Amino acid sequence: MAARKKTVRKHAKTHHKAVHHHGTHKPANSNEPSLSKRPVWQGDLRLSLVSCPVALYGATSRSADISFHLLNPETNNRIRMIPTDPDTGPVERADLVKGYEISKNHYVILSKDELDAVKLETTRTIEIERFVDEKDIDRLYWNDPYYLVPGEKSGTEAYTVIREALTEAGRIALGRVVMHTRERLVALEPRDKGIIVYTLRMADEVISPKEAFDDIPSEKPDKRMIEIARKIIEQQEGPFEPAKFEDRYETALRDVIRRKEKGEKLVTAEPVEEDNVIDLMEALKKSLKAKPKRKAG
After folding, report:
1. Contact 144, 187 (CB under 8 A)
2. Helix, strand or coil for residue 202?
3. DSSP string of 27-41?
4. Alpha helices (runs of H) in 147-247, residue ranges in sequence order
5. Phi, psi for 26 (deg, rounded to 5)
6. pLDDT tens digits for range 207-239
7. Treating both helix axes as pointing N-terminal to C-terminal, what angle do 280-289 and 223-235 enclose, rounded to 10 degrees?
8. Which domains does the chain have, with CATH numbers?
9. How far apart are alpha carbons 231 and 253 in whole angstroms?
């Protein structure tokens, strides 16, 4: 008798209701990133015959970034971007279709129904296919992080079993999932009480380092200069503390906006002087003698 899949949800359900996450209340003007109210993906996490409903939430946020709108300087009206046919003029966005260019101005047109017909199991399921050592994944392949959480309270037990198995194995799990009209390779890593999912780039997305670095000479520089550079590095060593760093450009930009809003007259900044280093050895020696800048943290 064939083994039946252990599942923690009713098979009649086709849509999962994500568990609500209640964080601390943040003021509207807070720059602190917070978990989105809606998941970017919902489906099942499956390890062999064990499955449970899960939801993916973005682990990063750009909501605090400064963004600008394009305005007509004569009226201060926001500009509307209107799809336009070069022959017939403006067209309704809802009437547009997608086309793949097979040669110049020749397209294969696909309707929404035809695109929707391209269904994969990974559209609704993250199936773990392999376990690898984290060190085996080149950093060039790591992409965006997401938080994977139980999609229903009834699925928490199976979720924690998979999480603990990953923790004890000391391995990264690899699977695939369809997100944003693409099937993506993903890596699952246990973290605290949950699981973090990283999208990984496919092989055809990563440019070979050899192509970028091929023209750099292979000769080693002067050992004395390397030794001085190493001492400079030692002077500036410290722990990774991301909270100690900030986007200084965006901070300055916010200050400019605030001052302009108050009616202040802004003065054009002086151009930044660039140091033209001619004697590399001399520059290294001066750097070593110079008082190290205050470390972040």
Report:
1. no
2. coil
3. -TT--S----SS-SE
4. 156-169, 209-213, 223-235
5. -120, 140
6. 999 999 999 999 999 999 999 999 999 998 999
7. 30
8. 35-60+118-205 (2.40.290.10), 207-235+281-289 (no CATH)
9. 36
